[in-house]
Specification:
Elements: E1 6-13, E2 26-31, E3 34-40, H1 44-47, E4 53-55, E5 60-63, E6 65-70, H2 90-100, H3 109-121, E7 124-132, H4 140-151, E8 157-163, H5 174-184, E9 188-192, H6 201-215, E10 218-223, H7 227-244, E11 250-254, H8 256-260, H9 263-276, E12 279-282, H10 293-299, E13 303-305, H11 322-332, H12 338-348, E14 371-374, H13 379-385, E15 389-394, E16 397-401, E17 404-405
Parallel strand pairs: 1-4, 1-5, 6-7, 7-8, 8-9, 9-10, 10-11, 11-12, 12-13
Antiparallel strand pairs: 1-2, 2-3, 5-14, 14-15, 15-16, 16-17
């Protein structure tokens, strides 16, 4: 066995699979960034007497949270309060952000790092983050997020989506910028309301899927357009995905139209999404229609949770706590049973692996040592109370203690 670099003693590993509540008391043996072994409580010290230890104090242990939809490049977190402004539409918010981002030094390495630090403080150890790519910024936001992640030594693993916030077709040159982001090593490109923003859904999707087809990257599309207009675009996305063989590489973010659709039409849409291998991310916003999450789960559609933007020029809300997003998801969808509440936590942890290209994630030997300790009776209790994170280990390093950062 490899040399142990840390032993976390006396923890209760939570099983976040539906229907399970908590497991037996164990010790977790960590070597470098990896969990080496899980032993019965009290056994690890004898096996590795030289290794430093952390007393888990019988606390509940969850895998690190995986934030599947974030915008860490555009926050004013940690600065003086910025009052909300602009028109309350997608286009209005885009225009307001473009008009005021420079005065707030958005984007910046420091701003992105501040958000990633909040993620760590709340137990998020991996994220998929969109980073704006437009004619004014070029690839600056992408480079800033990469630099911010590097400054934290990889404590938060960041997968980037090069995101054309201001449109693709209506801004000639943006498609080339997306290709340049791919050349830089970005694994995903984004899209935004092909009808509502570019006013030419076929042209936007043709351009994006051409890049996907030629380069093999993933595609993550924000789709806010509701009702029939949104469904029309979902069908176009499905058709394009099947046409280029991008099964497992396309994600829909938000996708409010799926909740707007009801009955047999919704069931057929879920079936077609599953057939195309399209995944889904949501930030569980209030006043939106619930997703057919049970049908999506049964169909095998990957579903992830995200924080979206945090204190940015789009909205003043958010603090980086993904467990609160899981709670919002549970409330929006009327969850009550232990099984359903545990599933909401699963969405924030182990279910997030497809969105950050991890083969597996959890409190088992062989996984990256991403561990969150909370003072809670069980998984449902942790969800409904969202207690502070008593200890966060990210990649084998203690990064948060008693709710405060240590890096």
């Amino acid at each position: 066995m490899s040399r142990a670099t840390l032993i976390l003693t006396d923890v209760r590993p939570a099983t976040v699979d539906p229907g399970s509540v908590t497991g037996d008391m164990v010790d977790l043996v960590i070597g470098g960034a990896e969990i080496l072994a899980v032993t019965p409580a009290g056994h690890a010290r004898a096996l590795h007497p030289e290794a430093p230890t952390e007393d888990g104090r019988g606390l509940l242990a969850l895998p690190g949270f995986i934030n599947a939809h974030a915008h860490v490049d555009k926050s004013w977190w940690g600065r003086e309060w910025v009052s909300y402004g602009g028109e309350a539409t997608t286009q209005g918010r885009i225009a307001h952000e473009r008009a005021h981002r420079d005065e707030l030094s958005i984007p910046s390495v420091e701003g992105a790092e501040a958000v990633l630090r909040e993620f760590l403080r709340h137990g998020t150890t991996a994220t998929r983050s969109h980073a704006d790519v437009d004619l004014g910024l070029g690839l600056k936001a992408v480079e800033n997020v990469l630099a911010a992640a590097a400054n934290l030594g990889g404590a938060v693993e960041v997968e980037i989506v090069a995101f054309p916030q201001d449109g693709v077709i209506r801004r000639p040159g943006v498609a080339r910028l997306l290709e340049q982001a791919v050349e830089l090593g970005v694994r995903n490109i984004g899209g935004l309301d092909p009808a509502g923003i570019d006013r030419d859904p076929v042209a936007q999707l043709d351009a994006l899927f051409d890049i996907v087809d030629r380069t093999g990257v993933g595609l993550d599309i924000h789709l806010h357009d509701p009702n029939e207009l949104g469904v029309f675009q979902l069908e176009l996305i499905i058709d394009h995905t099947l046409a280029v063989g991008a099964h497992g590489r396309v994600n829909i973010a938000h996708g409010f139209a799926l909740g707007d659709t009801k009955g047999a039409a919704q069931q057929e849409l879920v079936h077609r999404l599953a057939e195309a291998g399209i995944s889904w991310t949501t930030v569980a916003p209030p006043r939106t229609e619930p997703l057919p999450w049970r049908a999506m789960r049964e169909a095998g559609i990957p579903l992830g949770l995200g924080t979206d933007g945090i204190r940015d020029l789009w909205n003043p809300f958010g603090d980086g706590d993904l467990l609160k997003v899981a709670l919002a998801f549970a409330r929006l969808h009327g969850m009550r049973t232990d099984e359903d509440l545990a599933y909401a936590v699963q969405l924030a942890t182990t279910a997030g692996v497809p969105f950050v290209h991890r083969p597996h994630h959890g409190l088992e030997a062989g996984n990256r040592a991403d561990i969150v300790l909370l003072d809670a009776q069980n998984v449902p209790d942790a969800l409904v109370r969202t207690p502070r994170r008593e200890l966060v280990i990210a990649g084998g390093r203690v990064v948060t203690r008693a709710g405060e950062l240590e890096i």
